[in-house]
Amino acid sequence: GWRITSAAAVMVLVLTVTRRWGDLGQVFGNRRTLRTVGLAAVLLTVNWTAYVWAVVHDHVLETALGYFIAPLTTVTVGVVALHEPLRRAQKIALAFAAASVVVLTISYGRVPLLALVIAASWTSYGFIKKRISLSPTQSMASESFVLVLPAIVTVIALAGRSDSIPHSASGLQLGLAAATGIATVVPLMMFAFAAHRVPLTIIGPL
User: Fold this and answer.
1) 10 Å Cβ neighbour count for 184?
2) Which terminus in the chain has less CB density within 10 A, N or C?
3) SS3 category, 83
């Protein structure tokens, strides 16, 4: 909730400074585009939530495995859905990566459900960003604004708990929570910029 709310606040500032509020008309004035943006926003929320839940509940190995699986699934989508070619060296490298995922999964001892959720949600998000014809500013702002009301409701609803951020965070921690918006917006806008210019078979490993 804090991350989405903070990201939306950052995008309000970006749109105001760059005077690009009119760019959102292409998103909110087109139902199909808005549905696609909404799906991307939900996938991103699933990805973040699964990651945070896993870290808080001592499933860090699954988060690492999830982001190790994600490059493989991203490349697979690039090859199967977008018909991107793979050179022989890439195939060999991916075969080693796939083998390592198998070894790590077997050594983990059970089906890594959180890892699969993280990998599937990120791969699906990347595919959508590849297909949607919006600028990084348009896509990041619209994704944030689609989610901001539920995020604000979540923050308010949980604010009264003894372990909530307003009750338990120090001044520094509160500032870091607010700064998650910047830590969210910058890499995701760069990812959206790259998605239109770089094949998924390259974006995945990177």
Assistant:
1) 22
2) C
3) coil
The string of pLDDT tens digits covering residues 45-55 is 999 999 989 99
End-to-end Cα, the chain, rounded Å? 28
Q: Where are the alpha helices (DSSP H) in 57-112?
A: 60-80, 88-108
User: 76 to each of 94, 97, 164, how far by Cα in Å?
Assistant: 10, 13, 40
Distance CA 74, CA 76 (A): 5
Q: Which amino acid is it at 125?
A: Y
**Tokens representing 31?**
């139902």
| Tokens matching residue 90 | 């890439």
pLDDT band at residue 187 using 50, 70 and 90 as cut-offs: very high
- 114 and 59 Cβ atoms separated by less than 8 Å: yes
> What pTM was computed for the model?
0.89
* Separation CA 169–CA 148 (nearest Å): 22
What's the CA gap between 174 and 160, in Å, rounded? Answer: 15
* All residues at 6 or more sequence positions from 142 whose CB lies less than 8 Å from its CB, including other chains: 24, 27, 28, 34, 37, 41, 134
At CA 37, angle to CA 4 and CA 185, rounded to 5? Answer: 40
User: Tokens representing 155?
Assistant: 């923050």
Structure tokens at 69: 């699986």
- Using CA atoms, how far apart are residues 89 and 96, in angstroms rounded to an integer? 11
Residue 30 is classified by DSSP as: -
> For residue 26, which amino acid is it?
Q
Q: How many CB atoms lie within 10 A of CB 12?
A: 15
